[in-house]
Every structure is written in C-alpha cells, then in structure tokens.
Amino acid sequence: MSLQFPKSIIPLSFHFNTVLLQFAAMNNIFTMILAGGKGERLSPLTEQRAKPAVPFGGKYRIIDFALSNCLNSGLRKIAVLIQYKSHSLDKHIRSGWNILNAELGEYIASVPPQQRISEEWYRGTADAVYQNMFLLDTEQADYLLILAGDHIYKMNYAEMFHWLLAKGADAVVGALDIPIEDATRFGVISVDEDLRINRFDEKPKHPTPIPGDPTHAFASMGIYLFKTSAIKKYLIADAQEGTAHDFGKNIIPRMIQEGRVYAFKFQDENKKAVKYWRDIGTLDAYWEANMDLVAVDPLFNLYDPNWPIRTYQGQFPPAKFVFAQDYQGGRMGVALDSVVCGGCIVSGGRIQNSVLSPNVRVLDHAEVRESIVMENVVIGEHSRIRRAIIDKDVIIPAHTEIGYDREADARRFTVTESGLVVISKGMKLNASLDPSG
After folding, report:
1. Are 245 and 125 in contact (CB under 8 A)?
2. Residue 187 is assigned to a ligand binding site
3. Structural domain for 101, as ranges
4. Confidence grade of residue 23 (pLDDT, cut at 50, 70, 90)
5. Inside any domain, residue 297
6. Is 202 annotated as a binding-site member?
C-alpha cells in the first residue's frame, strides 16, 4: 500500500524547497556597491559628504535604496566601496545597516581603498573592483554583482540572476527601455532578438533602437552581474592598460567581443504605470525627485510593505503642529501636501509641498513652500522660503526671504539655472539678511 499525502501539502513542500534553493543561490553572489564618487554636480550638498550619503525623502540616504534592494532580493554579502568624504556614509552604514548575522557569514561593510595592489585611489569603476579582488578571493563566490550607490529605484536582483543562468551568460547588464530621443544622454546597449548585446555606445548621437520597437532604446543602468571566473581576467587585463578603467567604456565592450553578454530588461518592483529609475546627479533632478514624493500619487512609492526601504532610525519624538487656536491671527502650525519626519515642530508656521527631515523647527508666521529642509534646521519667525534646498544645521534668521529675489539669492547662495536656491550645510546666516534691516 503506497503512502498518500494530502494534495495541499505538496505545494507547501515544493515552495519550501524553492525558498531553500533560492537562498543558497543568492548566498553564492558577492555584491559590491560603488559609493566612492565625488558627486560634483550635486555640490554644495556633496561638499562634506559622498553623493550616496546625501539625504533623500526626509529620513533616507541615497545609498539606502541600493542596500534595501539587496536585502529584499536575498543578498547577504555586501561590500560598499567608499572613497571621497566617506565619514558620514561609513557612519550611516555602521549605525543603520549593522543588521545581519556575522556568524552566518552575512554582512554589509564599508570598505575604503586598501592600497593592496596600487598606491593610487580608484581610477574608475573597474579599478575600484580590481583593487578589491582580495574580497572575491576571500568569499569565493561564483557570481559578482556590481551596483551604483547613487541611484533611486526598486529591483529584485534575483530575477537578473535567473536570467544569467537561463542564458548561460558570462555577464548580464541591467537595461532600462527609454524613449530613443532621450538615449543620447546614456550608455546605449544594442541587442539582437535574443537580447544578446552586440554593441555598447556611450552617449551616441544616433542610438540604436530596441529590435521591434524603433521608438525606444536600451540604456545601461550601471548594474552588472558577472560570473566571477569570467570577470577576473578582464579586470586584471584592464588594470595593465591605459584605459579609463570603466565597466561601461572598457570592460563590457571587450566582453561583448569575446564572451556571452546579455541585457536584462528592468523589472520594476515599484509597480507603477511608468518604470522608475533615477540618477539624481544634478541639484534640479534631486529637487524634482523629492518633490514627487509629496504628490497625492507619487511616481515612487515609499509606502509599499512588500518592498520596504530601510534606513537608520534616529530616536526622534513624533512631529508636532501647534497654535491652531490662533488661526484667526494667521498663526497656525500646518503642513499641506508635505512629508514631515519625526522630531519636527511646526510652531505657528506653514509648510506646503515640502520635505522636512527630522528635528526641523518652523517658527511663528514662517512659510516654507516647494522646499527640502534637512536635519536640525530652524526657520525663523516671519521668514519666507520658496524652491530651496536647505542643508543640515542651518539657522534661518527671522524675516528672511529666500527664493523670491534671484539676484539677491545669487549673491549669498548657490542658485541653479532654474532658480533653485541651495544653502550649504552649517552655513552661518545673520540678521543682515532681514530685508527690513
């Protein structure tokens, strides 16, 4: 007599085995996140910090999105390669991301330049990985995932891994389909009908369209998954040559000629009508991405429990809005269409279409519109702020106006071509800014 199991048990058992196989496979991937760039186009926000450490969305740092993707994808061996102005980034990783079990070989660690191979700092993205190949040798992982630490998006890297296995590829490149008229600003991937890459062009004048879709092209997302055995020889060879030591410019084009390299079409875990991937490399792009978050239906969803975005959680009390009883005199603490973090007190002021980081004070009759205000900022009484980014630890004196007189703003602060005003971290403002004297 054969033993009969209830049919309901079989799917559960199959699912459990699938989870175990998935865990084992993802545990065989070593991840390096490139977080050492200067981020000069985001200056002055990057004057005292690396670009991946720049705050975003009130409570997050830019690096949090790549790290959250890794955790949500099941990746547990992650090295963040840091370099320029790395103190705040390193501190953030140690404080907010020390969450894995070292006894199981899991970790998220910031790794500065070791000078094990060269006395130089990282000369490019490929050189940064080459100088840290000792980590690959230590981990002995069969696959290497390379990510940029300064992009905002949601992606399950496990799907990319399955694509590499299905194609028997040496490498897979993350590809975002974009309107062909925008492709001149990106590295463009040319593919055949099977999505095998046959050419990589950096910012081409005449981008190659996706087969079967002449209106779109594939842009490289700066996400690369390699077989470790395949990539090591290319990194070693590139280090001996006078190249830019860049994955997009040097490594991938050479691998295309000699190996099997495929594009992986971006599968967006943000689950909106339009795919969301942002390289917020300029002040205006950074401001626009933050302003999207305060919309009724933002393009980027921070509120999805199925794809949580983690960060360091400071011990701040709840946000508070006071002086509603004085509304007839115009003194009422209120925030409309805004993101307001813990520790903020809106004390008789008005916030609209703005993002406030923790521990911000907005005082009597002050008004803040379409602005990003970072930690420990005080907006003085009767001040008016519009279309501004105010970095940490700034005190705005009473009766200050910012964003209403472009010429006056340009004499004191950084002002972009669009008129966006940016105030540096810790900048000392004085009462002479009071237009009434």
Report:
1. yes
2. yes
3. 9-283
4. low
5. no
6. yes
> How many contiguous H segments (helices) and E segments (strands) does the chain have?
10, 29
Alpha-carbon span 358 to 320, nearest angstrom: 11
- Cβ neighbours for 437, distance < 8 A, ≥ 6 positions apart: none
Distance CA 150, CA 30 (A): 19
Q: Is 265 annotated as a binding residue?
A: no
Q: Residue 280 is encoded by which pair of tokens?
A: 């917020």
pLDDT tens per residue across span 91-144: 999 999 999 998 889 999 999 988 777 777 888 999 999 999 999 999 999 999
Return all residues near 50 (Cβ < 8 A) that are at least 6 apart.
Answer: 35, 36, 37, 38, 39, 82, 83, 84, 85, 86, 88, 89
203 carries a ligand binding annotation: yes
Is residue 167 included in any domain, yes or no?
yes
Q: Which residues of 124-156 are buried (b: 16+ CB within 10 A; e: fewer)?
A: bbbbbbbbbbebbeebebebbbbbbbbbbbbbb
Residues 271 and 372 in one domain: no
- Verify that 264 and 325 share a domain, yes or no: no
The reply to whether 330 sits in an annotated binding site is: no
Name the nearest CA neighbour of 339 among 371, 379, 300, 294. Answer: 294
Determine how many CB atoms are found less than 10 A away from the CB of residue 169: 24
- The candidate with the shortest Cα–Cα distance to 212, out of 191, 239, 198, 182, is 191
Sequence-ordered list of residues with C-beta below 8 angstroms from that of 207, at least 6 positions apart, any chain: 180, 183, 184, 188, 201, 217
